[in-house]
What we know:
By secondary structure, the chain is an alpha/beta fold. The chain contains nine helices and ten strands. The protein has helices at residues 6-9, 21-29, 42-52, 65-71, 89-93, 108-120, 137-142, 198-203, 221-236, and strands at 15-19, 34-39, 61-62, 77-82, 99-102, 125-128, 152-154, 165-174, 186-189, 206-209. The strands form two sheets. Strands 7-6-5-9-8-10 form a six-stranded parallel beta sheet. α6 (108-120) packs parallel to α9 (221-236). The radius of gyration is 19 Å and the shape is elongated. The relative contact order is 0.15. S-adenosylmethionine is lined by residues 168-170, 189-190, 192, 194-196, 209-210, 212, 218-221, 224.
Amino acid sequence: MQLTDVTRARRTPGLVVLEGFHAVKHALRFGGELLGAWTADAVALEDLRDRLAPDVALPVEVVALDDLKRVVPRGQVVAVARRPTQPDPLTVLAGSGHVVLLEDPRHLGNLGAAVRVAAAAGAAGVMTTGRQDPWHPDALRGSAGLHFALPVHHLRTLTTGRRELVALDPEGEPLTAATELPAAAVLAFGTERDGLSDELLGAASRRLALPMTPGVSSLNLATAVAATLYSLELARG
Ligand SMILES: C[S@@+](CC[C@H](N)C(=O)[O-])C[C@H]1O[C@@H](n2cnc3c(N)ncnc32)[C@H](O)[C@@H]1O
């Protein structure tokens, strides 16, 4: 594969484009299969690797800076990986840990940040609905490539298996240290502007709110995912 193939790879269903050092590093660390990686400054990249990821071998090809910038205006390194085959949603739902469900997230940076914290906090997987491909390069950049660390699914229809569906909603009952939840629920978060749909709120067994100072309407989506996962994790002790 050549650097000039990256543009086509963005539109190829079985491939994903990784932009930036951390995305490439995490993809490799969590078993991603790289088909090609390019940089214009091998010395700087090697220095980053030595300092931040000595465990990872970065097989990069050196190209002219102008050629790299034409493909990734901001990136120091770009790579193409095979999009991992995802397990069936029911397999993910049968795993341990909470599943994060993002209903129609619009902002790819938020989506990626939610995947990142889900991976860090030991979630079983992330499921999304709606128009965005959760494996879009901007989402991968937002997750720093941690899509490769856990299953990330785009659902056509809402599936929760045997798990309790819990809605995170600023209008819900306050989430406290005493809140009891099963160790493996589906935690649903709504779209950035409008929150959860009536359909999803109706399907949930309960609605929980992260307490906020009076006058604050809501948290950013990815921040809400992070605060929820870590509150529940800390409450488990
Ligand atoms: C930016 S908020 C959406 C704001 C929307 N106007 C609303 O009222 O839900 C995106 C999502 O983050 C979650 N969220 C934000 N703040 C929250 C809070 N204080 N408690 C629980 N969930 C929250 C909810 O799932 C919400 O749908």
